[in-house]
Amino acid sequence: MAARIDADLFSRAKAADAADPLGGYRAAFDLPVDTIYLDGNSLGPLTHAARDGVSATVDTEWGRGLVGSWNTADWIGLAYRVGAMIAPLIGAAPEDVICCDSTSVNLYKVLGAALAKRPGRHRIVAERDNFPTDLYIADQAARRAGPAHHVQWLAPGQMIEAALDEDVAVLMLTHVDYRTGAMHDMAGLTRAAHAAGALVVWDLAHSAGAIDLDVAGCNVDFAIGCGYKYLNGGPGAPAFIYAAPVHQADIEQPLTGWFAHAAPFDFSPGFESRAGIGAFLTGTPGILGMRCLEAALSIWRDVELSDIRDKSLALGALFVEAVATSDAAPMLALASPREPSRRGSQVSFHHPAAHGVMQALIADGVIGDMRAPDILRFGFAPLYTRYIDVVRAADRLAAIVVDGRFESAAAADGGAVT
Ligand SMILES: Cc1ncc(COP(=O)(O)O)c(C=O)c1O
Ligand SMILES: Nc1c(O)cccc1C(=O)C[C@H](N)C(=O)O
To answer: For residue 179, which ligand has an atom nearest its CA?
Structure first.
């Protein structure tokens, strides 16, 4: 296979790795050797801390402590504790974030709470191109809020601000687009929603752990996000909810289970909500998942979010440059914004045989993913992705595309879903 990437890019990558302030964090991960993992935006990899944390929970807390571990290991307080660990990663105070349930379920809860705070307004404004779970959940939230409630779906490129008027209750947006990595202006759009009297709900699935977020500084009303992507909490890890302090006094959310009760162990037939962010809880948390995420989050203790963003921007820019200066450039159209500051932590390219190309790339040791119909998606998680990984990935991608090795790979693939 001919070299398709300029040798200078390899030298620059090695120098950048040697100077990387986050370089030491890679050792916290148990990554398979000979694999370049660029799919942490779908599922973050295993950390040594998570493996150890889960095994201690299983052996000691569950195995020996049995039911007493709800108290002795404070399982009962995990939702708050893990929420407090996520808080600094999104620019929130510890008491304003709770960890629970899935992103989809949490979205339903915060949309319900937000709609309840804007009586007399009937519209959720949202983007048609968003990740499908957000579309389905918003539709349900609107349908169940009342006969006049509905979602206004914006087409790609349609001006969001122009849709905001006195009937809008909630502007619901995903901060970083799952296909293209395009990032919204959180501060500006939150301001625009507030100027129209609406509340804003942000989905941070592709942002938390990858961007230097500041939900409090942006005056965000509600946010939700994923534990299993850049936070590396493991498959199906619990998700999180942020609510601004101003909204926590009287939360009316639609899935009030007993964990949201002010005194759950009174087993009272009448519901009385917990005060504060705990009002968003529903039922018994999955403790193994909570512990796994908690342990994975422990590695973030001393991480500077500005280092995360700086490296994320640099990794993305290097990948774009490597592909753009390769022989494959005419065959790979950038699907992400060209301006790095308008991207999250992923870079995507269009290719008409994206599925086959990605299968060939995976066979070559580079794991990214594809999104229909034609998007090749590469996520850059600054804690473990090296600059050299990015250049090697671009090199192998270019070789596959130029050599046309993807057709046979497409034919051989059985149709993976991820
Ligand atoms: C924007 C967005 N929201 C939500 C989700 C996932 O929600 P859940 O974890 O509930 O499946 C994803 C990805 O799976 C996503 O990309
Ligand atoms: N959440 C996923 C899952 O349960 C299985 C496979 C993939 C996923 C994903 O992460 C999808 C994802 N949110 C995306 O950005 O495409």
So the answer is: 2
